[in-house]
Amino acid sequence: MMYLMRESCELILTPARIAADLTKLACENPLNPLTYTIAGRSVAASCEIFERATRAYPKPAFDLAASERVVWEQPFCRVIAFGEPSDKPKLLLVAPMSGHYATLLRGTVAAFLDTHQVFITDWSDARQVPLAAGRFGLDEYIDYCMALFEALGPDLHVMAVCQPSVPVLAAIARMEAEDHPLVPRSATLLGGPIDTRRSPTAVNDLAQQRGIAWFRRHCIHAVPPSYPGDGRAVYPGFLQLTGFMGMNLDRHLTAHWDMFNHLVEGDGDSATKHREFYDEYLAVMDLTAEFYLETVEQVFIAHRLPRGEMRHRGQPVDLGAIRRCALMAVEGEKDDITGVGQTLAALDLTPNLPPERKAYHLQAGAGHYGIFNGSRFRAEIAPKIKQFMQHNSEQSGEKTLACEQTVMLQPDEDRADGLDASVALIVYQAPPQCPAVPALQIAGQS
């Protein structure tokens, strides 16, 4: 019913949006004297804000300086490759399936185009997938990951941004348990909810307080007949967006007020940046009900992966089986979605992976978005990830020589997030026969 109500509201507001567009055009017409007045610019700005606040945003384009080609496709996902095939190392970006499209990682892709063959998972909007395509839950997600590792291997590097960290790690564990020859060479987990018992955020607390029955009752709706996925049970993207914006409502209201002032003042550059960000941020997709509910229950309520209770197709997901795929955990100091320590847990839960194949980076001053996009990502995080992948790449058909590693624990008494564990500074000490590897340590720390 809620989905139908929202669709009805969009239709009802269509005439008002058209009127706002026409009014804006009139107020910006060079032949109109009002165009050159504060009053005229204020009316035009108000009309634009109204139109943008009430429209449905389409899926954005990557629009990068590289050709795109689809190299793998299934009903719920396709994989896009950027540029022509080359001999560069292969990197698969597993985009989050959490409401936004894969284009949210446009900046992440761009940061690796010069050094890697980049592939990205372009997840399907569930409302566009017919019921005949079947279900898509956590088991199917892990199936997709393993199929991708096989299709794009060998010597594949994987990067999971936020939500996919759990299924990606589970897929690697299952392949390692079977001694699969095409297990990825390395996996980098950025802001992933591996163990949400550590430094719980408002997102984690909500799941614990409400319980799975509440989410099933209030968050799941059927796709209306106007879409190919008619009748499919989904978690609508507009509900996820409401939750995202509700976490930082003051910031979003301030951003829109600032845009209004920029338009009135004629600051076109600032207004353009606002449009670009919100054209991406407000474009959302639906998730299948089974995937959403299973993720909430297993990851945020029952903590099945860190407890060793997670299963895939009836088989245990044993992180202790991981012994070949190198792991790097990246976290943001000010991440209000995935708390500090939640991704680091992946390194603690893989005791049989040699220490020299583990790395950790805590980015000072970065929030959730900042660990995979923006200036800090480009200048500080991406170079360290490239360093890590290069160190764990296969060279001339042989494994890179293992290097000794010293892990120094530096207590951080100034932290206010309640994390008891000391902050790990990972420093590689290479013997003469090993390639020199610069220190990987926390940005902002000496």
UniProtKB/TrEMBL annotation:
<protein>
    <submittedName>
        <fullName>Polyhydroxyalkanoate depolymerase, intracellular</fullName>
    </submittedName>
</protein>
<dbReference type="InterPro" id="IPR029058">
    <property type="entry name" value="AB_hydrolase_fold"/>
</dbReference>
<dbReference type="InterPro" id="IPR051321">
    <property type="entry name" value="PHA/PHB_synthase"/>
</dbReference>
<feature type="domain" description="PHB de-polymerase C-terminal">
    <location>
        <begin position="191"/>
        <end position="392"/>
    </location>
</feature>
<dbReference type="Pfam" id="PF06850">
    <property type="entry name" value="PHB_depo_C"/>
</dbReference>
<dbReference type="InterPro" id="IPR009656">
    <property type="entry name" value="PHB_depo_C"/>
</dbReference>
<dbReference type="InterPro" id="IPR010915">
    <property type="entry name" value="PHB_depoly_PhaZ"/>
</dbReference>
